[in-house]
Each structure stands twice: as C-alpha cells, then as structure tokens.
Known about the structure:
This protein is mainly α. It has one domain (92-411): Orthogonal Bundle (Citrate Synthase, domain 1), CATH 1.10.580.10. Helix content is 48%, strand content 5%. The protein has a three-stranded antiparallel sheet. A two-stranded antiparallel sheet has the order 1-2. Strand 4 (76-79) and strand 5 form a beta hairpin. The protein is globular. The mean pLDDT is 95. The protein binds carboxymethyl coenzyme *A (CMC).
Amino acid sequence: MSDESSGTRNTLSIRDNRTGKEYEVEVLDGDVIRAMDLRQIKVDDGDFGMMSYDPAFGNTAFTRSSVTFIDGAKGILEYRGYPIEQLAEQSSFLEVAYLILKGELPTQTELDQFVHDVTYHTYVHENMTDLLDAFRYDAHSMGRMISSIAALSTFYPEAKDVDDPANRWIQINRLVAKMPTLAAFAYRHHRGLPLVYPENELSYTANFLNMLFRIGVKEYKPNPVLERALDVLFILHADHEQNCSATTMRVIGSAQADPFSAMAGAMAALYGPLHGGANEAVLRMLHRIGDVKNVPQFIDGVKNREERLMGFGHRVYKSYDPRAAIIKRTAEEVFEVTGRNPLLDIALELERIALEEDFFVSRNLYPNVDFYSGLIYQALGFPVEMFPVLFAIPRTVGWLAQWEEMLMDDEQRIARPRQVFTGPSRREFVPVEERG
Length: 436
Ligand code: CMC
C-alpha cells in the first residue's frame, strides 16, 4: 500500500544501466508489474523496447482469474474460495461444477435445473458411433476422445457464436453432459462391447459407470462407495487454474474458436505424460517396478537421471499436493470394497523413501494428484489407457470456466507471445547449383 508519510509507493523503480535513465512502473495486486510497462525502456527512439523472457511461463501471470486459488507453498487449493477438502467431503461433482462455472454455490432450485440440463444433454448424434468405427481396434482412448470432441463441433455450428452468453451456456451444458457418454462409448468400442446409452434417472457418476460396465443385466447398480469415490475424484480434478491444458484452452479460445474445437486442443495438452497422462504413466511405472524390493534400485535410477518418478513434483506445489492427500484416503475406502491393489505397497514404499531422500526433499518433490489416482481407477475396473480420460471428464468444467472468463475479460485479446529471434541475420538467396 502507498504511504506518503513513510515515502513508500506502489511502484517499482528501474534504472537502465545502459543509458543511466530511470523509470517508475506501477505495482499491481501486491507484487505484479505489467510486462507492457517495460516497453518504454529503450536505448534510443528506434529501439523496440524491453521485453521479459520467460520460457514455459515460469513467472508470468497470463491472466487475472477468480476461479481457482492455489498456494503452492502451503498446499492450499480452493475453488471460488471454498477449500478443496470441504468440497470433497460435503459436495457433489455437479454442484462443484456449477460453483466453478457460475462463481457461487447453487440454490436447490438452481442445482436441480443444472442437474436436469446436464442429464438431458447426455445423448450424442448416432453418427458419432460411426466415427468410433474409423479407429483401429486398439486406438488409445484419449485419441478417440480428442477426435470425438473435435468432431462434435461440426454437429453444433451455432457454437461458433461465442459472444452470446445463452448460447455459450448451452454448449457448456452439452460438453459437461456428453463427455462421460463419449468416454464410455470409446471404452466399450475398444473392448468390442455393445454400447450402453445414457439413463436419465441415474446420477452423473452412476450413469457413467452404467454406460461403462453394464453387461448382461437390465439394471446396473454401482456400489455407492465406488460411485462416491469417483465423484470425489471428479471434484478433485475439476480445475487447477493456469496449467498447460487450461492455457491451451484460453489460447485457442482467444482466436474465438468454438468451445468444442478449443477443448479438443486442451485435451491434447492434457494427454501428455507430464500433465494428465501422468496417472497412466504412474501405473505403468509401478508395474515395471513390480515388487517393493525393487524400489531402492528404481529410486537410484531416478537420482542418476535415468528415470523420472511419475506422479511426483509440480510446478506450483512445493509441498504435499492437497488433492493427493484426499485421494490417498479415498483409496483406502475403495480398497475396503474392492480389495487392496497390490501396487499400493510399491507406491507407499516409493513415497516413504522419496520423502526421506535429499534428492527429492531438496527439490520439494512430493506426490501429486496422479500418484494415487491410478490405483483407484484400476480398482474400479478401468484399463490404464482410460486414466487420462477420467482426468479429462471433470476438467471439462475447469476448461470451460477458464474459457468463458477469458472471453469476458476486456483486457484479453488474441494470444500472441513475442520471441527473441536467434536465427541468422539477413542474407541473400543462393541458387542450389551454387551452394557448396
Ligand atoms: N522425478 C525426478 N525428478 C524430478 C521430477 C520427477 N517427477 N520432477 C521434477 N524433478 C526434478 C527436475 O529434474 C529438476 O531437477 P534439477 O533442478 O536438478 O534439474 C527439478 O526437479 C525441478 O523440476 P522441473 O522439471 O524444473 O519442474 P517443472 O515445474 O518444470 O515440472 C512437472 C513439473 C510436474 C512436469 C515435473 O515435476 C514432472 O515431470 N513430474 C512427473 C510427471 C507428473 O507427475 N506430472 C503430473 C503433474 S500433476 C497433474 C497436472 O496438473 O498435470
């Protein structure tokens, strides 16, 4: 805060030692300066002006956002101000989805309406099932999902009208509603099983489980503990502020692409093993380690840089990821129903050693959301290639909230970073016969 009596001001003084000139730039929100304020710093009038260089956006605020708050040092995660622990304990996924999308918890009437709207948008055009036939039998589920969501944009050409709030809300409902249907269709198609269509009287997660696993019976009743566990996992994955896929969503959306096309891009980003594909990579890693007795050797490989401990580390969290703590507890509840996943012992031993070893401690590497989630997914009966899809379904909510926030933000324009050019300076073209 500025204080004239003590001579302090909310500004930053910059002295350019190349020219001896001094500049004063405004400090916003406690500790932020506008990168454009650096542009006035020039050696001479013909100079372009100063830029900041920030590969991988390590220290750049790309936007203002009121959706999700993270304090990485303290391990705090809040959606619209509500702590993740309270939401995971007391709320449901669709209630949290409404909160993230609209900014406030719904009244009972608003929640009923939202649940109704999402429920009644779950069907997809039958042509979408033909699309599944175009894939190879062993196609990865994320490849199918990314293509399906991109294809859906062609069924809703009106989604291009991104300036109309009512139209946006319809597309948001459609995307939240249809993701489980497309995911279940991808799974059943992969397995060669007949498709199961949505049942409107079931909850969001029960309907998803029904479309996935019902076979040979008229009615499928998911175990309530497992249904709730999946709902909690969906709550935990619903948003995570400016991560790689949310940024992709914003960047594509900033060109005013329709939300289906933008979301296909966001899903492609999520698919990467350093992001939402990490849950699948963790399971494959645990299988590869195979036994608790092999853990020390694996850890040595990580320290020697031959391996990466998947499910550990985070750009923002420099303490325990609060989502991982909740997932670890949820895993115990699930295993009481399904029996203990034998890979859990390997995971626990990896965590125990990693939390003691200087390599991990000195780099603040703790388990992240993906370390334990795969063990639950596997206990619920999902094959590993479905794990990133199980991340993408709830994250749809976060992507759409971030997308809408970007569209409503007067300061945002088409995303277009600068570069520091390092190529050759101008030279004359040489015909091929004259090249040495
Ligand atoms: N195993 C071994 N070393 C690691 C790991 C790891 N999982 N993560 C980071 N490091 C090391 C890294 O080598 C570097 O060491 P040094 O400073 O000596 O070169 C140091 O820790 C800092 O890592 P970084 O790569 O600069 O960190 P980042 O912020 O660029 O990357 C990350 C973050 C999540 C990509 C990375 O920690 C990672 O690859 N983790 C494994 C993949 C994973 O679990 N991803 C899921 C993230 S949570 C879900 C989501 O939101 O996407």
